[in-house]
Amino acid sequence: MISYDNCWETMARRGITKYALIYHYGISSNTLRRMSHGEPITTSTVNELCLILHCLPQDILSFEITEEEKAFQEQRELEIAEKKKK
Question: How confident is the model at residue 85 (pLDDT cuts 50, 70, 90)?
C-alpha cells in the first residue's frame, strides 16, 4: 500500500501547507483528498510535488505491502507459475 505520510512530514519541514499547494502551486484539492485517503496519484503529480518541495519521491510516498496484497501477490505468482508449466 502506498502511504503519503512522508509528504505531510516533508510539507511540515518546508513550511508548505495544503492551502499553499492548492492556491499557490496549482495542486488540485482532489489530489490532496486522494492522498489523504491513500489513493493513487499520477507520477507527474509526484514529480510536481518533488519540484515544489525540493525533495525526492521517497520524501513524498512510501510502500509497505499489506497482508491482503501479500496474499494476492502469492496467489498470482502461483497462477503464473502454473501457466508457464503448460
Answer: confident
Cell for 67? 497482508
Buried b (16+ CB within 10 A) or exposed e, 64-78: eeeeeeeeeeeeeee
The model carries a pTM of 0.83
Rg (CA), the chain: 17
d(CA 80, CA 56): 34
Contact 31, 45 (CB under 8 A): yes
Domain boundaries, the chain: 2-85
State percent of the chain over pLDDT 90. Answer: 94
CATH entry 1.10.20 includes domain 2-85: no
Cβ contact 37:64 at 8 Å: no
